[in-house]
């Protein structure tokens, strides 16, 4: 089998302590997917900081395996069975979902549950475009608009009559999210991060009713998109469905904006950028929001600041949960060593957004 195309540079050596038991995997595959034979070449994707994701290159199959990380996890997080079910149910009506082949609930195989899906070849953008991928001004703008189109299309999926009806908990999504993320932060707090008490109180006091209930991704951003190498503005697949559920579409949009770093943002924000959203032609956060509301026909609500603050605070919680695992030696990835500093910054950013909202 040929090597990975140079446009996909983020699958590298497996991190120490995160190796797969290939003999156990092979025994399980012989029963579950007997058409997959041989010993794979294994690499690990470095882009994600949550679930462990591997590329398995077999002689006739190119697969991706996802499993939870080791260590303490939020009770509802890293549910591979749920994630694989969502993708299988969504793929017939939202074709940008990778094909899931099999799910394993038996922790005796690899130490935890996992699932396998077909790898979608293409470009995945991270901090900088891969070598040979041209994102000129016009292409960057088209990519942003296509990403908004994909999010709008996802939010338009009707879950009625499908297994997607089972993934939500009904009305009250916004309140559940705020209560859940506030509680998760308290549980994951370490001595060297702020209490975020003011932000948590403001979010709880300003939580609106749901504007609608639809399929939401929960982590929709450029580095979760697979792009066509010949046209990087064209989206082939949307990855990472771990947080997908039925919920409020505006909260999904707020989540996405938290990762959207502009070229005119402050130095700390620019240092955290994980997507090439600073390039000429990339839409600003305001332009993304304007495009979303134009395409959906919804009016931007007067309390839009709530969704922005929610997205940034939620990102702070995710960062702190990752740092918690590093702090307690449950992961050895050195990239997480200074995440506590980022939590301080995100708390200040939330408080700044709240002050701007108070000024009208």
Which terms summarize this structure?
two-stranded antiparallel sheet, 360 residues, Phosphorylase Kinase, domain 1, 13% strand, Aminoglycoside 3'-phosphotransferase, Chain: A, domain 2, six-stranded antiparallel sheet, disordered N terminus, globular, 2 domains, 11 helices, single chain, alpha+beta
Overall mean pLDDT: 92
Q: Let me know the CATH homologous superfamily of the largest domain.
A: Aminoglycoside phosphotransferase (APH), C-terminal lobe
Task: For the largest sheet, list the strands in their spatial order.
Answer: 1-2-3-4-6-5
- Using the coordinates shown, work out and report the CATH topology of the largest domain: Aminoglycoside 3'-phosphotransferase, Chain: A, domain 2
Q: From N to C, what is the helix and strand string? A: EHEEEHEHEHHHEEEEHHHHH
Choose one word for the global shape: globular
Q: Biggest sheet, in brief?
A: 6 strands, antiparallel
Distance between the termini: 59 Å
Number of domains: 2
Helix content: 25-40%
Task: Give a count of the beta strands, DSSP E runs of length 2 or more.
Answer: 10
Note the beta-strand portion.
Answer: 5-15%
What are the low-pLDDT stretches, counting only 5+ consecutive residues below 50? 1-9
């Amino acid at each position: 089998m040929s090597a990975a195309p140079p446009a996909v540079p983020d699958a590298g050596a497996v991190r120490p302590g995160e190796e797969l038991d290939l003999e156990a995997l092979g025994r399980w595959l012989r029963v579950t997917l007997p058409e997959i034979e041989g010993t794979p070449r294994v690499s690990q994707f470095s882009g994600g900081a949550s679930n462990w994701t591997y590329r398995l290159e077999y002689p006739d199959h190119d697969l991706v395996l996802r499993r939870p990380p080791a260590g303490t996890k939020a009770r509802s997080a890293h549910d591979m069975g749920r994630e694989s079910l969502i993708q299988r149910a969504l793929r017939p009506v939202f074709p940008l979902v990778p094909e899931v082949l099999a799910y394993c609930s038996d922790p005796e195989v690899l130490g935890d549950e996992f699932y396998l899906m077909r790898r979608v070849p293409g470009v995945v953008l991270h901090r900088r475009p891969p070598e040979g991928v041209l994102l000129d001004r016009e292409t960057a703008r088209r990519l942003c608009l296509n990403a908004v189109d994909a999010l709008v299309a996802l939010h338009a999926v009707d879950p009625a009559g499908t297994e997607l009806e089972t993934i939500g908990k009904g009305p009250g999504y916004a309140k559940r999210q705020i209560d859940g993320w506030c509680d998760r932060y308290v549980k994951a707090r370490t001595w060297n991060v702020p209490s975020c008490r003011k932000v948590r109180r403001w979010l709880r006091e300003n939580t609106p009713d749901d504007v609608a209930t639809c399929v939401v991704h929960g982590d929709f951003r450029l580095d979760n998109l697979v792009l066509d190498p010949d046209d990087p503005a064209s989206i082939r697949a949307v990855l990472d469905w771990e947080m997908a559920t039925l919920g409020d579409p505006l909260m999904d949009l707020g989540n996405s904006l938290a990762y959207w770093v502009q070229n005119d943002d402050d130095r700390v924000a620019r240092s955290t950028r994980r997507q090439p959203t600073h390039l000429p032609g990339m839409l600003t956060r305001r332009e993304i929001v304007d495009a979303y509301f134009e395409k959906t026909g919804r009016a931007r609500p007067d309390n839009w600041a709530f969704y922005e603050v929610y997205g940034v605070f939620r990102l702070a919680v995710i960062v702190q949960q990752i740092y918690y695992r590093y702090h307690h030696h449950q992961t050895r990835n050195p990239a997480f060593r200074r995440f506590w500093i980022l939590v301080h910054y995100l708390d200040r950013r939330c408080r700044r957004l709240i002050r701007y909202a108070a000024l009208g």
